[in-house]
Design brief:
Length: about 160
């Protein structure tokens, strides 16, 4: 003969099964939608070791802004800014180098909406060893850094009357 579960145990199993079923049938909480990324994001070389980033102040729903720089196949965080920021200067870069930056609007739950990456180059170094180096055509792009097209100018201090 087959034994059956007591009525109290059957009722408890039924309530647990119904609770699990209803919990699984509930729709998942909506994932937070990321804020819109800032518009008008631009980057430009400012000095030999600095790039200036700027964008429009039109970010809605962001808790903060995140600036990242591309390093090989990865992106490295450079700064976390308040959502009201509209400009940031990246320091300590290598002269005559090309860089890619992106800007993200970060929501409260950490979701990020990224801008399209922007490229900028730092200016070449104008000082090498014990002399100043200047492009004869005035080109200040990173592409024109080879020694051949440069004209050497002795340091101004060495040529000044005070140094004699």
């Amino acid at each position: 003969m087959r034994e059956s579960f007591p009525a109290s145990l059957r009722g408890m199993i039924y309530r647990i099964a119904c609770t699990v079923f209803l919990w699984m049938a509930l729709p998942a909480a909506d994932a937070a939608t990321p804020p819109e990324p800032p518009t008008g994001f631009r980057a430009r070389g400012l000095t030999q070791e600095e790039v200036l980033l700027w964008w429009r102040d039109d970010v809605q729903g962001a808790q903060r802004l995140r600036v990242e720089i591309e390093e090989g196949p990865f992106w490295k965080r450079v700064a976390e800014l308040p959502p009201s920021a509209i400009v940031y200067s990246v320091h300590g870069l290598t002269p005559a180098s090309q860089y890619r930056f992106r800007l993200g609007a970060v929501s409260e739950d950490g979701t990020v909406a990224w801008t399209q990456p922007q490229e900028a180059a730092t200016f070449p170094s104008l000082y090498r060893g014990n002399h100043w180096v200047v492009r004869p055509d005035g080109d200040d792009t990173a592409a024109g850094t080879a020694e051949a097209p440069f004209r050497t100018i002795r340091r101004a201090a060495a040529a000044s009357p005070a140094a004699s």
